[in-house]
Amino acid sequence: MRKVSYIDDFEHWKSEFDFSIRIDVRFSEVDMFGHMNNVATFDYFEEARIKYMAHIGLFKDLSGDELPVVGDLQCDYHKQVYFGETLYIYVKAQSVGNSSLDLHYLGINEQGDVCITGRGVIINMNKKTGKSAPLSTEHREAILTAVK
Amino acid sequence: MRKVSYIDDFEHWKSEFDFSIRIDVRFSEVDMFGHMNNVATFDYFEEARIKYMAHIGLFKDLSGDELPVVGDLQCDYHKQVYFGETLYIYVKAQSVGNSSLDLHYLGINEQGDVCITGRGVIINMNKKTGKSAPLSTEHREAILTAVK
Amino acid sequence: MRKVSYIDDFEHWKSEFDFSIRIDVRFSEVDMFGHMNNVATFDYFEEARIKYMAHIGLFKDLSGDELPVVGDLQCDYHKQVYFGETLYIYVKAQSVGNSSLDLHYLGINEQGDVCITGRGVIINMNKKTGKSAPLSTEHREAILTAVK
Amino acid sequence: MRKVSYIDDFEHWKSEFDFSIRIDVRFSEVDMFGHMNNVATFDYFEEARIKYMAHIGLFKDLSGDELPVVGDLQCDYHKQVYFGETLYIYVKAQSVGNSSLDLHYLGINEQGDVCITGRGVIINMNKKTGKSAPLSTEHREAILTAVK
Fold this sequence. Notes:
4 copies of one chain form a homotetramer.
Chain A: H1 10-15, E1 20-24, H2 40-55, E2 66-70, E3 72-77, E4 86-96, E5 100-109, E6 114-126, H3 137-146
Antiparallel strand pairs in A: 1-4, 2-6, 3-6, 4-5, 5-6
């Protein structure tokens, strides 16, 4: 696997994941060369992120004053994926800041090959001000429990 | 604007762009909070990239042995974008390697605000081997002419 | 052109359109056989519909009690469309009911070939009850002015 | 449920389905009013169609001379669907023609409510001529076995 800036020791990094979702690559997500479109992976990350945050108890109530927004996103493509393949998208909380957390992603196929890796910051935004706001104690604790 | 790892001097970086496409944010690209979905930006980068590569004379013939594939992608979200807004997505060749080139992206709204920035490597892939292949002299020269 | 149930006299039907939007078929909207994906056309209809309704003065304020929702949609594919082609999506109000209106669609390429036709009902829904509600006098008049 | 043109007796029509796929409505498929976007349903139909055709033995080999293309599509929206809901998309072969077949669709939520219904013709196209071609005896028999 190609070296990427956000992974120091791949085996250690990989061992910290314990939550994943299953994705069947759709026909509409494949391009004219038969490859999974690079844009689709960010849809997969989003699904994995939403289910992971629910799983660890984050942002359960979006009707309040705060909303998780995406600060940045990146994805590295290690192996081509084709129509009809199944991917398992793993996600974990890598670290936590005052008003944000860093999520990391790993996508492997049914043979266990690493197809994609990624990461991105989620910012806790105040809906009224449109600016970042400190994470609540409850959220911070939920994240710290999840971070290995 | 928040500091991002791939931009040293923002004003200088910005001054090197001279190609852009216009994007009207679609209703289907807006999420339940009224914000442009973060996945849509990678669709915009793709459109900008395809038109830019055609503009500088790269990969004009995809029926041959070689194909440009995406090696990695990243995007930083600096300002929320809403349904009905227009974005101008700028793209430039930042650097060239033996078998790849690095493209950078800038998305600004009609008021000139920086909404998104990004980058990603394009790899020249041989269709038969599925592996990277050195850029042809023609492609390398086209890229070097474009890089500021 | 193949006969479709919602068009009696094609030339007459076509002559009633006078509003259109331009769509450049995106790379991500093309499938592994090089054809425009059939799902993309409904995205095009949506863009055309939103801009047409704004054009004739419908549903300008979505913060009120009422919301336009899609009751049904249909599309007939008459000619294959490929990546890089430009489509002009025409839309018109065909008829109006008590709480709904019927919109018709025509998509032609730059050579003037009919590529797609379609139609669908838009229902005026009350946000609180989740049920259809009579169109206001203002909306009804705007539609009747638009219907040929 | 609202009456639709392609369903005579709803209970009878519904009883003929015995193949379905499960769809979890994605965050990116929900619009700014919290509703499942109407375009997403055609993606669901496509997934259901591809898996159903494989299930009954149609178009197993797309490397040959023939390709299934979509002739028309329609969808009726009976009940709003929200983010996080699960839909079961049923599909059946309703009838067969010389070079085409008519597929019908039913989407129900976990409570068994009818949320969407639809239909559309699939045409057997010859890749070289770009025109419709008679279904092979093998394909015709597979469809006739599936039609109730």
